[in-house]
Design a protein that fits this description.
Radius of gyration: 22 Å
Helix content: 55-70%
Largest sheet: 7 strands, parallel
CATH topology of the largest domain: Rossmann fold
Structural class: alpha/beta
Number of helices: 15
Enzyme class: hydrolase
CATH architecture of the largest domain: 3-Layer(aba) Sandwich
Number of domains: 3
EC number: 3.6.5.-
Strand order of the largest sheet: 3-2-4-1-5-6-7
CATH class of the largest domain: Alpha Beta
CATH superfamily of the largest domain: P-loop containing nucleotide triphosphate hydrolases
Keywords: Hydrolase
Number of strands: 7
GO molecular function: hydrolase activity
Family: Belongs to the SIMIBI class G3E GTPase family. ArgK/MeaB subfamily.
Length: 328
């Protein structure tokens, strides 16, 4: 029987050689809940760590209907045509509630899904948002080791996922729709503060004029906020994911940001800070796993929930009992 060390060395060599089947297998191991799979994944990632970190990591978010998949398909295809290898990953908090899959995104990214220089991977289908983000980070490292030099991380849901993806990437791109009037009122200030760039999509045909007007409104709104860094003022651009217009200029700005911050050592510093957050996210995921899988807790939890719901047991008392069972 092949021992664990030999197995992870063989798999690591195959990943470094760019074998897609090996990459897919490694990601499946990283996402698995089985202890033996997790042990193998940890050893594999530790072995590959020196060969990671060479990619530009870009987070992409936007409201439903903004055209994320179309834009990512067009941007990814543009980048592979320029000689890049592109991996598209997703953080999907909705899947943590429903167990659903976002494999439909593969069908919406028609060009990238058949591009030999691209790789599309949906997020894990269960777990806490922190756990999903942590597994996405592991997937990102594995893709970098396999030679992908651009990682696009898409938020499929809304809410906390934006913060999670911002904590995974070097650059955070927020896609917006034209007709900014009503939408401008509903923009969460926190999302704008996270943005390294705002791109108004659907700036083609009749929508071009509306997109330019929206961009002007977003620029005015950004003047209210102080830049997060003296090195960078958040630009607002107009693009069309449908026609590809503006994607080359948008990517040039992303590269410019990466160059400026890289020269000052700020990309490396940010990634080190993200690694610390990753560590704590994994600790929290392990605690959640113990809550889900401990036989004693699984047997006792329904009675505690029923007692709290009936008002016969205080939530604090129930929480104390669960914490004690976990040794906390």
């Amino acid at each position: 029987m092949v021992d664990t060390a030999s197995r992870h060395e063989t798999l690591a060599d195959a990943i470094l050689a760019g074998e897609r089947a090996a990459l897919a297998r490694a990601i499946t191991l990283a996402e698995s809940r089985r202890p033996d799979h997790r042990e193998l994944a940890r050893a594999l990632i530790q072995r590959l760590l020196p060969r990671t970190g060479g990619a530009i990591r870009v987070g992409i978010t936007g409201v439903p209907g903004v055209g994320k998949s179309t834009t990512i398909d067009a941007l990814g295809s543009y980048l592979t045509a320029q000689g890049h290898k592109v991996a598209v990953l997703a953080v999907d908090p909705s899947s943590t509630r429903t167990g659903g899959s976002i494999l439909g995104d593969k069908t919406r990214m028609a060009r990238l899904s058949v591009d030999p220089h691209a790789y599309i991977r949906p997020s894990p289908s269960s777990g806490t948002l922190g756990g999903v983000a942590a597994k996405t980070r592991e997937t990102m490292l594995l893709c970098e080791a396999a030679g992908f030099d651009v990682i696009l991380v898409e938020t499929v849901g809304v809410g906390q996922s934006e913060t999670a993806v911002a904590d995974l990437t070097d650059f955070f791109l927020v896609l917006m729709l034209p007709n900014a009037g009503d939408e401008l009122q509903g923009i969460k200030k926190g999302i704008i503060e996270l943005a390294d760039m705002i791109a108004v999509n659907k700036a083609d045909g009749p929508g071009a004029t509306a997109a330019r007007a929206a961009a002007a409104q977003y620029k005015a709104a950004l003047h209210i906020l102080a830049p997060a860094s003296p090195l960078w003022s958040t630009p607002v651009v107009t693009i069309s994911g449908l026609t590809g217009e503006g994607l080359d200029a948008m990517w040039s700005r992303i590269e410019e940001h990466h160059r400026r911050f890289g020269e000052k050592g700020l990309v490396a510093r940010k990634r080190r800070q993200q690694d610390v957050k990753w560590m704590w996210a994994m600790v929290q995921d392990r605690l959640q796993a113990k809550l889900r899988n401990d036989p004693g807790l699984k047997a006792r939890t329904p009675a505690l929930e029923a007692a709290v719901a009936a008002g016969s047991l205080a939530p604090t008392a129930a929480a104390e009992e669960i914490a004690s069972a976990l040794g906390l």
